[in-house]
Design goal:
Length: about 475
């Protein structure tokens, strides 16, 4: 795409001359006669450069400059000045203009300045995208997802991020719970305060309380000094309690107290400590069931469940799969400093057919592994792990024919088994199962009908890991 240049000048001759000369050099030029129209154009589209006359009817160039830069701080603005306006031009440079040029000017010199400005523009844009990608590691930008279930997630995140409301994030392992928790914190008024994570399964129950609330010196064997717990470390910020469904009942009672009273006791302490902490919790367990089973306090569940966000498993957001693959390929390529473009069509078919029981984390691992193995920019099937290459979970037995069965009946049984297996493998998605079986979707549909296979029942079953 040619670079678009916006020329703002009221002099008819100048307008004509610039438009001709720039178009001849391959630029796409828009010419307007006053600053007001220029600002409107800038609101509508993106330009690579603005050439701005100082003397204009209505708002002059000096006034327009800050308004242009306000819209796009990295946009190079070159001022065009008449005789005796050098002073103004210097002021404009101080005000953020890229350069100025005096009329009448030599087109060749002008073209050189223009080219340099465009290069700088390209560079700042590259830096901007890069740093977005980098801070994307923690921010919102890096959460890939345009499928309807993910849009719902973003809508909820947007609603809750600027509040102090306790959030419960539910979802299977690897669906992005931690990523979402961090995004909420980063976008909250507490973003410049600590985000403290605690994985409740990683810590033995006997130590969890001290980890959360800290302890006083001598409160138990080994407690040689007073220690701050995670809640104190997170003061004014956010605490992320991961895998909260695995927390023991005694600790649950203490968490409930913090949620209700915003205070707690250190282990071995006699005075309560007050804190201002926002709590985000996550779990891959069904807490309703845990409450029924008596392993999770109902009152704590209600407190946590005030605002709950459910992350969909990857198999139910087929639309995001290709986007996530692209995202991880690009990221691996950057990380490994290795030119990687994409997967070959065959490899892509296998990736799209897999049911991803380990969700985004599994996908991320598969792509990173492929990226390491790849010796060409296009990664082929040989870079994929075995779990993607075969879909039959069981070792095939020698086929048998039951007494009274015909060869056709036996073949039908085998066919049914293979189709069920492919459907199980793809989480019941027929397009993908058809690909795995090397038949058209239409043919699969006919066979499913003929063989009386219950796709819904297969769909509801969790895929085997
Ligand atoms: N929508 C997404 N876009 C980009 N990356 C994602 C997305 N969802 C998850 N990831 C990545 O997948 C990995 C797993 O995500 P995360 O740790 O947030 O999941 P989790 O639900 O907390 O998993 P677990 O239950 O295993 O702890 C992370 O590396 C994360 O960056
Ligand atoms: Mg996690």
């Amino acid at each position: 795409m040619p670079d678009r240049i916006l020329v703002v000048d009221d002099d008819e001759q100048m307008k004509f001359m610039l438009a001709e000369a720039l178009a001849a050099r391959g630029y796409q030029v828009d010419v307007v006669g006053d600053a007001e129209t220029a600002l409107e154009r800038l609101d509508e589209g993106t330009y690579a450069i603005v050439l701005l006359d100082i003397f204009l009817p209505g708002m002059d160039g000096m006034e327009a400059l800050p308004r242009i830069l306000e819209r796009d701080p990295g946009l190079p603005v070159i001022l065009i000045t008449g005789h005796g306006t050098r002073e103004l031009a210097y002021k404009a440079i101080q005000g953020g203009a890229y350069d100025f040029f005096e009329k009448p000017f030599k087109m060749d010199e002008f073209a050189t300045v223009l080219r340099r400005a465009l290069e700088r523009r390209a560079l700042t844009q590259e830096v901007r995208t890069l740093s977005q990608q980098l801070d994307g590691a923690t921010g919102f930008a890096s959460i890939v997802g345009e499928s309807e279930p993910m849009r719902d997630v973003f809508r909820l995140v947007n609603k809750v991020m600027s509040t102090d409301v306790t959030v419960l994030i539910r979802g299977e392992s690897g669906t992005g719970k931690e990523l979402v928790a961090e995004a909420i914190h980063r976008r909250s008024p507490r973003h410049d305060k600590p985000f403290v994570k605690l994985n409740c399964v990683a810590i033995p129950e006997s130590l969890l309380e001290s980890e959360l609330f800290g302890h006083e010196e001598g409160s138990f064997t080994g407690a040689t000094a007073r220690r701050q717990g995670k809640f104190e470390q997170a003061n004014h910020g956010t605490i992320f309690l991961d895998e909260i469904g695995d927390m023991g009942l005694a600790t649950q009672a203490k968490i409930l107290r913090v949620l209700q009273e915003r205070e707690f006791d250190r282990v071995g302490g006699s005075e309560s400590v007050k804190v201002d902490v926002r709590v985000i919790a996550a779990t891959n367990k069904d807490l309703v069931k845990a409450v029924e089973d008596g392993t999770f306090r109902e009152d704590l569940y209600f407190r946590l469940n005030v605002f709950s966000i459910g992350l969909p498993p990857l198999r139910s957001r087929q639309g995001d799969l290709a986007r996530l693959i692209d995202h991880f390929v690009a990221r691996s390529s950057r990380k490994l400093a290795k030119p990687l473009d994409a997967f070959s069509p065959d490899a892509m078919n296998l990736l799209l057919a897999h049911a991803w029981p380990g969700n985004v984390r599994e996908l991320e691992n598969v792509v990173e592994r492929a990226a390491v193995l790849a010796d060409r920019p296009v990664m082929d099937v040989d870079c994929l792990p075995a779990q993607l290459l075969t879909f039959a979970g069981t070792t095939p037995e020698e086929p048998t024919i039951a007494p009274g069965q015909s060869l056709d009946d036996a073949l039908t049984d085998i066919e049914r088994q293979l189709i069920r297996s492919a459907l199980r493998h793809t989480g019941g998605v027929q397009t993908r199962a058809a690909k795995l079986l090397g038949i058209t979707e239409r043919s699969l549909w006919h066979r499913v009908k003929k063989l009386d296979i219950d796709v819904d029942e297969i769909k509801d079953a969790k895929p085997d890991a």
